[in-house]
């Protein structure tokens, strides 16, 4: 394998975007959960809600900050490494990302400061409103990103003029059915990420026999919520499969590990696909199920990869295994959340250490599922950047040199590793300290535009250094 | 439509330069200070606003892509390596705001990353402007230079110039926001920084004359452009008087006015080009359907809101920043 500028740019984009998605998928879910907690606090007046809210707010702040920092890179990478894509699809993707920045920035700039540092300065109702607005901002952001990516998956509402894609129907772009199955899929993934992490934290405290009341609250809310949402996620996953089956048959065949046409088609559960012989080794498959999943029929013909000329086929191994990793994570989370919810409902979960351990150890699963889901979607779209219209090989900056691309890839790897290590360390420390009473509230002195400034109140170190007089 | 988005872009760039220029400048001055108390005061002076300031850079990026995709694609790919260094600098200095205060043993690392990240970002931004003024080789809307074409003594000189300019903005900000030693040190830094900046401008002017830079002709063709240097000169005089009388308020306003005048000079001397002298605003503009879609939502409603938020943010954190005695 030679490291061409194209391959290096793809690696760099994959690395930076995978790193980035970890944080938004966590904070979108967390913002929504904070809104629920605050609403419950306002309605019931129970102090525990408030305590848990303040605790998770600080973790939200750190994760949000890392998301912002890693997001800046994304805004420029389309132009630097993918200048042909930027030039050709700029008239469509540019306005969508403008909306993303503008709507998210407007809401976050307005309300994040209130959320992080304004508790004592505003009325409780307005504080709840601010929390909801920040949550809404994160969802807007996700929405525009999904519109943008869905357009690359299934381009609609455009004409080609002078070598670029010119929008001629924004309604089609915004209300494409593809958007409205993929956006909920991503949103639920983000909610699940938040819920599973919250439940895992509760389980962790119970295992340590600390913060029993708060831990039960987190565990119960997290488990119940994921127990309900996980089946819904399966339904949206299936709808995603339908659009892929319809619009991107080559991706569908790659994900299914189906090399040749079959009628009725079997469903490959697990196998080792071999691109050189165009067949699967050690395949475990179920007859007819493939047709059922693909076309809701017992006898339909399902398309195999060899129907497509080799230059139009996506790579098989990564989409095939990434998809199975995603579904595997989903299945484990489903089992844990159902068993855990049952035991929690029966108030017996504290005695079942194994279930607590399983809940605690499942915290990486939603992240893995999100990232592998994106791998399936994006690598399965290859060899296209804009499906059917612009090949990835033609989207890359034509004069980019391998040396320049190597340098940038190495620089991003080094910096991201550094900030991720420290960020993870500080989040871990916040989690370790736990919801420790009224002291957890961020000091009024801290500032509005510093998402990560919340770290300063971690209770082990001295308080914030600066105070701003108004 | 096209002019509206050119205007939004100009406002975003100007706001970015004025606002983030302040905190990048404070970062540069931070690197020259050794005393921990002073360093904390300097960071405290920009900590509440840096995040919002930097968002204007992202706004600039996405508006450029949405409204002028060719310029976005051409510039960012032509300036690949400088852009990388700038982003690296911005990330390193951004996380330093938070990580620095959490670490005792590793504080040297975040001090270093804050100061060097700020300096790198400022230098590269100047360098990119310099490369643009000098002219990038573009044929038929495509960049035809090599990976290092942007590198020239003139561009490096502009990098140094902008770093000095940002440092001046930073010093004026510290004068307004801080007290005691930090304020006094900042006051003492303003005259040499201003002098260096004037020297820088003289050299730029001489180079432009000597090398017959295409931009120069525009200044000669359009004498009314002299209004901008005039504004800059007047604000420099007021700046000097305020520093002499130790009046904390005016210097930052005057420095920003001078920066705005310099920006105006540059913008109008580029006009109607976006990449001088190969791609005009009209060449680069996205199709009407794109500009109109952006205008009726983001442009008409959200952009004014963003301006208001910026103003409110600055107002909320007005006044002096003081360090509480019991901290650390």
Main sheet characteristics of chain B: 2 strands, antiparallel
Broad shape of chain A:
globular
- Give the % helix of chain A: 55-70%
Low-confidence segments of chain A: 438-470
Number of strands of chain B: 5
Please compute the radius of gyration of chain B using only Cα atoms: 20 Å
Spatial gap, N to C terminus of chain B: 53 Å
Proportion of beta-strand residues of chain A = 5-15%
CATH topology of chain B: Formate dehydrogenase/DMSO reductase fold
What's the CATH C level of chain B?
Mainly Alpha
What is the tally of helical segments of chain B?
Answer: 13
The biggest chain-chain interface is: A-B, 79 and 79 residues
What features would you describe in this structure?
The complex is a heterodimer of chains A (470) and B (328). By secondary structure, chain A is mainly α. Chain A has a domain at 23-175 and 402-470. Chain A contains 14 helices and seven strands. Chain A has helices spanning 5-44, 47-81, 83-117, 124-153, 170-174, 177-208, 212-247, 249-256, 289-295, 317-345, 353-361, 365-381, 392-395, 402-433, and strands at residues 158-161, 164-167, 267-274, 279-286, 384-386, 390-391, 466-468. In chain A, the strands form three sheets. A two-stranded antiparallel ribbon of chain A has the order 1-2. In chain A, β3 (267-274) and β4 form a beta hairpin. In chain A, α6 (177-208) runs antiparallel to α7 (212-247). Mean pLDDT of chain A is 86; it is low at 438-470. Chain B is mainly α and 328 residues long. Chain B has a single domain, classed as Formate dehydrogenase/DMSO reductase fold. Helices cover 79% and strands 4% of the residues of chain B. Chain B is built from 13 helices and five strands. Chain B has helices at residues 2-32, 36-46, 50-67, 69-78, 80-102, 107-134, 153-177, 180-211, 214-221, 227-244, 250-270, 281-284, 288-316, and strands spanning 138-139, 142-143, 273-275, 279-280, 321-323. In chain B, the strands form two sheets. In chain B, strands 1-2 form a two-stranded antiparallel ribbon. Chain B has a two-stranded antiparallel sheet with strand order 3-4. In chain B, a hairpin with a 3-residue loop joins β3 and β4. In chain B, α1 (2-32) packs across α6 and α3 (50-67) crosses α4 (69-78). The radius of gyration of chain B is 20 Å and the shape is globular. The model of chain B is unreliable at 324-328 (pLDDT under 50). At the A-B interface, α2, α3, β2, α14 and β7 of A face α2, α3, α4, α5 and β2 of B.
